[in-house]
Structures are given as C-alpha cells and as structure tokens.
Amino acid sequence: MIDPRPKVLCVVPETPSRETTETLMRLLSDQRALIEVSMPGTESVETANRGAARVVAGTFDYLIVCESQVVPVSNPIDLVERRAPVYGMPSPRMVWGKDKVGFGYQSYSLDASTGAQMQAEMGADDTEVDVVAGGCLIVSREVLQELESPFTPIYDRAGIVTLASFAAFCNRAKNAGFKILTRRGYVCEHFQRVPIGLVIAAMIEAEKRGKAEPGLKLAGSIIDAGGDTIEKGLQAAAQ
C-alpha cells in the first residue's frame, strides 16, 4: 500500500543553532508527513539549491528551507497540509530611524513603479505577498520543477547582490506564476530572544555617541552581560 502522507525534505543552510536543530528534529515525530531533515552545514545557497534538486529528482512533495539561526514558532507541517505552492514564515526585523523605532516581520509587497519593498501585514487567512526575505520557506515540488537554481542570489551589472537567497527565490516563483503566501501566527523567531527595550536602549546609547553602526554590537553586549532590564542594558552598553 502506498503511504498517502506528503514526503517532505527539510534543509538548513549553514551550521544551525542548537535551538534550530532541536525544533526541526521535533518535526520528525509529526505523523502527518514523512520527513527527512538535512543539516549539512555547508554554504547556504548551495545547500538550498541542492535540496531543491533532490526534490525534483526524487519522490519528495515539499521542500522546507529554514535559516540556520531561526526557530519556527508554529509547525510548518500545518502549511504543508494546506497544499499551496509556496508559504513563507518570515523572521523578525527591527525598524530604526530618526522618527520611529518599530518591529515587524520580513514579509513585503513591492511598489509597482519603483520596486521598493513595503511592509506587508499578514492576515488571519492566507495573505499573498511579494517577498519573504528571511525565516522559513515551504515550497512544493510543482514550483521547483519550474525553476533552475531557485535560491541563487540576483546580481546587478556591477556584481552587487540586489536580491539575496530567499528574495531571489520569491522573485523567480512569482515570475513563473506562483503565489507567495503568508498566514498570521506562522512566523519564525531568532534563536535567542532579547527584550525589545534592551535593543532600543543599546541603539539610543549608540546614537548618543554619534555612532549608528555599533547599535547591534551594543545590543550584543547586553546579551553577553545577561541584562534583563533597560537599566542593566544601558550599563552593559556603556562599558
């Protein structure tokens, strides 16, 4: 008898964090799908493209590509069961500017005239977006059969990357006629959570010093110092 469950190949480009590994290995116990998890620890684009080639050449129905430093908050097999061509589970991003500090996920729509990325909010039901730029992608065999080297970045004439791996995939998939779907609650988090107030405090301190770039490094010092309040965060950032 043929097993009717979908066959899923899950690959993690580069060396995954312990948290990412533990989360994805738990997928193996999900009885709704037949799952193979591959974590070769090699260059990310090569790993993702090789996974895509395995799906096309073999018997897998879906490819899950998960970035090495993120953890899916919800189970991606839920989205496999919905049988759509492409789902994205975006990872979080900080918005830091003169007038605002914000938080969102890396799902975007593109301005039709300029191509600029604009934040796309996820709905309670399937919501189409143009780009999911980081996190986790769930891609059907149907899509991968139409795309060659789907995760290879797109470069301009000067050899500068204009669309990185996930964004380049979304661009190719949409040009081939497939929808990129997201769904509220199906997102990824970075493997180590830090209170948002601490990150903001570190960036404020960096701005006071007239140095915008070290803001995330200062946030890193908060993590290393084990700070759990804004006061401790500022103390760590000031060292």
Q: What's the count of strands? A: 16
Order of SSEs, N→C? EHEHEEHEEEEEEEEHEEHEEHHH
Helical amount: 25-40%
Could you tell me the mean pLDDT? Answer: 79
For the biggest sheet, the summary is:
5 strands, mixed
Gross CATH architecture of the largest domain: Alpha-Beta Complex
Which CATH first-tier class of the largest domain would you pick? Alpha Beta
Q: How many DSSP H or I helices?
A: 8
Structural account:
The protein contains eight helices and 16 strands. The longest helix has 14 residues, at 44-57. The chain folds into two domains: 7-190, Spore Coat Polysaccharide Biosynthesis Protein SpsA, Chain A; 196-238. The protein is of the alpha+beta class and 239 residues long. It has helices at residues 18-26, 44-57, 76-80, 141-144, 165-175, 196-208, 215-225, 230-238, and strands spanning 7-11, 34-38, 62-66, 70-72, 86-90, 92-96, 101-105, 107-110, 117-119, 127-129, 131-132, 135-140, 154-155, 161-163, 180-182, 188-190. Helix 6 (196-208) runs parallel beside helix 8 and helix 7 (215-225) packs across helix 8. A five-stranded mixed sheet has the order 2-1-3-12-5. The chain has a three-stranded antiparallel sheet with strand order 9-8-11. A two-stranded antiparallel ribbon has the order 4-16. Helix 1 (18-26) links the parallel strand 1 (7-11) and strand 2.
